[in-house]
Write a structure and sequence with these properties.
- The complex is a heterodimer of chains A (591) and B (252).
- In chain A, a hairpin with a 5-residue loop joins strand 4 and strand 5.
- In chain A, strands 3, 4, 5, 6, 7, 10 and 11 form a 7-stranded mixed sheet that branches.
- Chain A is α+β, with helices and mostly antiparallel strands.
- Chain A folds into 4 domains: 128 residues, Orthogonal Bundle (Butyryl-Coa Dehydrogenase, subunit A, domain 1); 125 residues, Butyryl-CoA Dehydrogenase, subunit A, domain 2, CATH 2.40.110.20; 148 residues, Butyryl-CoA Dehydrogenase, subunit A, domain 3; 149 residues.
- The longest helix of chain B is centred in the first third of the chain and has 15 residues.
- Chain B has one domain: HUPs (Rossmann fold), CATH 3.40.50.620.
- Chain B is of the alpha/beta class and 252 residues long.
- The termini of chain B are far apart.
- Classes of the chains: A alpha+beta (591), B alpha/beta (252).
- The interface between A and B is medium-sized, with 26 and 20 residues.
- The structure holds flavin-adenine dinucleotide.
Amino acid sequence: MHLYQPPLEDYNFILHHFLKIEKEDIEGYKDLSPEFTRPIFEEAGKLASEVISPSNKDGDEQGCKLENGIVRTPESFKLAFDKLRAGGWLSLDIEEEFGGQNLPLILSTVTNEMFTSANMSLTMYSGLSRGAYSAIFLHGSEDQKQMYLPKLANCEWTGTMNLTEPHCGTDLGLIRTKAILTENGSYEVSGQKIFISSGDHDLSENIIHLVLAKTPDAPEGVKGISLFVVPKFLVNDDGSLGERNKLSVGKIEKKMGIKGNATCVMNYDGATGYLVGEENKGLKAMFTMMNEARLGVGMQGLAQAEIAYQAALNYAKDRIQGRAIQGKANPDQSADPIIVHPDVRRNLMEQKSFIEGARGFIAWAAVLLDKAKRDGDKNAEGIASLLIPVIKGYVTDKGFEYTINAQQVFGGHGYIEEWGMSQYARDCRIAMIYEGTNGIQALDLVGRKLAMDGGKHMREYLKLVQNFIKEEHSKDFENDFIAPLKKSIEHLQAALLFFMENGLKNPLSAVSGATDFLHLVGLVSLGFIWSKKAQSAEEQLKNPLSDKNFLEAKILTGSYFMNRQLPETRLRLDKILTGEKQVMSLAANQF
Amino acid sequence: MKILVPVKRVLDYNVKARVKADGSGIDLANVKMSMNPFDEIALEEAIRIKEKGNAEEIIAVSIGVQQNQETLRTALAMGADRAILVVATDDVHNDIEPLTVANILAAITLKEGPSLILCGKQAIDNDFNATAQMLSAKLKWSQATFASEIDVKDDIIRVTREVDGGLQTIDAKIPAVVSVDLRLNEPRYASLPNIMKAKRKPLEEINPADLGVEITQRLKVIETKEPDSREAGLILENIDQLVEKIQENVGG
Ligand SMILES: Cc1cc2nc3c(=O)[nH]c(=O)nc-3n(C[C@H](O)[C@H](O)[C@H](O)COP(=O)(O)OP(=O)(O)OC[C@H]3O[C@@H](n4cnc5c(N)ncnc54)[C@H](O)[C@@H]3O)c2cc1C
């Protein structure tokens, strides 16, 4: 099994050379010099590779077990989670008043990637707690904040998000879980939730469930949903744990991957719950933290592609098989390492150029979200909101695809569990489904985000790319980067024009191409990021002390993306231009 | 009591060392460096002694290039109270020799007045295993090497030593220099809050000249070579062939 190695050099390059975060005028960014970030990333990376990564296989092999109503996780999970908690890593970006370090999202984005690569199932326990923390932080009463946040901050208590029910996932307007007001102001929550990640486990002493439910006279549909906090153990006024609440785990699901994270059926049988925010405003409350949650899921796609790529790269250098077409690379051995073969190279280049591009993309979005949150910058928030469904959808679609590519490098050995390659693919797969399926992300992008604020955010985004294109560039750069980028942005504009001309009178024609459009924006974004990264690598190369090997590889990898991945925008555009014609042509009974 | 812990910045133990083209040493340009693992163990032990209430202050010292600051910040994040950086060279490839290191540490010891010096038994780059011994001789202090267990009681330090084929337990009188071995403890991970606090802990920067020590070069590297790559193995049919091969190679 491969032990994770943190790509520290790439983080340093992305944060300090490409994004130059320490020069950003954002609250809390001034301190973020390389001297500041390096020790943080080094230690987090050490923890990820030495403590967290070794527990990954236990999650897959041992899974979670429901024993006498309590979910047990593997021993190594407790050890790793304790270390994460003791080190304060889980509260890196939490407000100081609740015990965190209040560092910006851009830093937790990096540490999250490392921990998620090392063990995605384990990281989900803290990830969902972060979601519960934000929900209460943003919408809870002062008492609720004081009661729950100090404990949720560092995962002494963990959290869950309970939306899904057996008959409703995407369409939350259909939920049936009921909440009835009692005399003391709390509610009695009854109903069944399914697929609840981290629903129960033995990693923390209490679990704070956030549950969507309907009060008896609530309006129909999504306008009648309220949010409740329902702790596993009720909490006494002095903060100590009281009696067990009336909720239980029905079963844990057997599933394809992330087996170390318990996916639970949760039964609420008149459980005591407390309203968060106002009645009927529950869904809205959930959605205020959607950007960060979806960024986190996009990150899972990247993180699994990264660890799978690391394993594949080691294997490709080690495994000897066949001879190089260009002449023996390894004359004193019976064969050459498979990394000499163009098809293996192509495969590795696909992975590498996607991963490093996506890493830059997500980091950029994190900076935009920091700008929005810390400085109240509406423009940044608009562009981030536009791009979040792309990060969630495109990065997890491709992330999954590349875990499969990495598996391919191993030949038959990739299919055998011993090497761990199948786990990365199986774990990664869920990221395309939850937190809104990727199909729903595409709808969100085309149906909502494009038109939001009169289409302003897409215009701002286009302007950023076009202004960059207009800058002065060297001839090589013009050929390798700017020319392909220009073409791709023309494809994007053509797609937008098609939507404008047809979408309003015939929404089907736009929606039929939504997934293609999401990928089109994903491709253009990575093209833009790669061009900017290559430009900053060129700049840095002028410094004689710079790491030439590393920087040249950056430019060459970027050039691969621009010339071998980005042309896919043409294909996506062609599909979009067919509208609904072929997609919707069959009647349901003709399938 | 104060404890002094010298920490060396070396090529990270995960990084595969590459010989420089001219054979003059290992290429250290743009590679990951970290604290010598044995020094990490020494520091961890110092922190544990302090946590037990047997020491008041831990001073970490590093000798080398400016970037050794990073190593010292790591030491501060783990739990050292303050740090001293001795900038002895501006070229990371210039390894400061044990005798010079011992001279510098002796001078710092006189200035700072620690009663215990905890060192790694060797640095993983040059494997000298010499500094602790030289330092104790310079200071005329007790020495205990290769510690796998340490217990401080008043002015006596009881050290279990890893020796050939077993363990030896000795009592040394403080002040003492102790060099530590791999099995002494498992160093902690620095916590995020401590990494942040470390940025504000005192780190003093001095030159060897400030201590009246001259950097001298007594050793000369003639050649550095990568180990020969292993030759392909041979599959033999039976035991007889094996015996034959052995006889051939031993050359009877
Ligand atoms: C391992 C795991 C963990 C999970 N964790 C949680 C959790 O912690 N909390 C929680 O609340 N939920 C969780 N879920 C549930 C998850 O979020 C849902 O499964 C997901 O939102 C999809 O809902 P569904 O399964 O009901 O599918 P459906 O909504 O039935 O969708 C089925 C298919 O139809 C498509 N579709 C549906 N409606 C539309 C539409 N309007 N337009 C286009 N396409 C549409 C979907 O894209 C999908 O492909 C988890 C699920 C799994 C498998």
